From TrEMBL:
The keyword Nucleus applies. It comes from Seriola lalandi dorsalis. It is found in: Nucleus. Residues 259-279 are annotated as: Disordered. PANTHER family: T-BOX PROTEIN-RELATED, T-BOX TRANSCRIPTION FACTOR TBX19. This is T-box-containing protein TBXT-like. Keywords: DNA-binding, Nucleus, Transcription, Transcription regulation.
Length: 279
């Protein structure tokens, strides 16, 4: 490949197959572990929700992983995309999420939700292993607006998937890993009050919202006024909720990506067709 900063789906697949055929010994001890797994499970237990907005909203909990078993002197890029967790569209009815028909089509010509490239990419294996790899800057949107944001359909369930690619004279897919604990339904406003409460409790950026609510409770006659329960609480901003959208644009398309052996559970991620991506 002439440009080491470019990669195509075909190159990923062909390099992976070549590695399998020759028994490439690199990264055989690779281990990827989800950080804050217990926190993720608290949200998973009541079906997690993530806000999507026109301008993009950061995730909470923040996706973080610890990695071991990379070659310290090799160069790697870390990528993140979001694959549909099922084929359903969802709605919140009588306090629970229920399937409400088929997911929006992912036919030919529809845009991919996008791939987020970790800003430290590419970097040495030693760099990625020295501390948890944090995806705290990824933003979720419901509009096609570029800027490295991930576009998702509201009321659809997604699972973040991590791709590790060894870069150099020839790109090689090392692993693609996902964790069921991190599944969520994309929403324009939180539907479940329990999710709202958990976001406020564990998200340090939501403290201002909690303080405002407490002041409101003290100074307002709650027998005549009901405090709104559906607010969008993000990692960096607070805003009143809006009515959930029921039809948004541009669902993710998913194509099969060849699976590395013994490197975590793989959930069927897809590389977007068309232009190559800079690492």
């Amino acid at each position: 490949m002439e440009n080491l900063g470019k990669i195509t789906p075909y190159a990923v697949e062909s390099e992976l197959q070549a590695g399998r055929e020759k028994g490439d010994p690199t990264e055989r001890e690779l281990r990827v572990t989800l950080e804050d797994a217990e926190l993720w499970r608290k949200f998973q237990h009541i079906t997690n929700e993530m806000i999507v907005t026109k301008n993009g909203r950061r995730m909470f909990p923040v996706l973080k992983v610890s990695v071991s078993g990379l070659d310290p002197s090799s160069m790697y890029s870390f990528l993140l995309d979001f694959v549909p967790a099922d084929g359903c569209r969802w709605k919140f009815v009588n306090g629970e999420w229920v399937a409400a028909g088929r997911a929006e089509g992912r036919g030919e010509g529809r845009s991919h939700g996008g791939i987020y490239i970790h800003p430290d990419s590419p970097n040495f294996g030693a760099h990625w292993m020295k501390a948890a790899v944090t995806f705290n800057k990824v933003k979720l949107t419901n509009k096609v607006n570029g800027g490295g944001q991930i576009m998702l359909n509201s009321l659809h369930k997604y699972e973040p998937q991590l791709h590790i690619v060894c870069v150099g004279s020839r790109h090689r897919l090392v692993s693609n890993v996902s964790f069921k604990e991190t599944q969520f339904i994309a929403v324009t406003a939180y539907q479940n009050e329990e999710i709202t409460a958990l976001k406020i409790k564990y998200n340090p950026f939501a403290k201002a919202f909690l303080d405002a609510k407490e002041r409101y409770d003290v100074t307002t006659d709650l027998t005549h006024t009901q405090y709104p329960c559906l607010w969008t609480v993000g990692c960096s901003e607070l805003s009143p909720s809006h009515s959930p959208c029921t039809a948004l644009h541009g669902p993710i398309s998913s194509e099969s990506l060849m699976q590395p052996p013994n490197h975590g559970r793989v959930g069927g991620a897809g590389w977007p067709p068309g232009p190559t991506h800079s690492f």
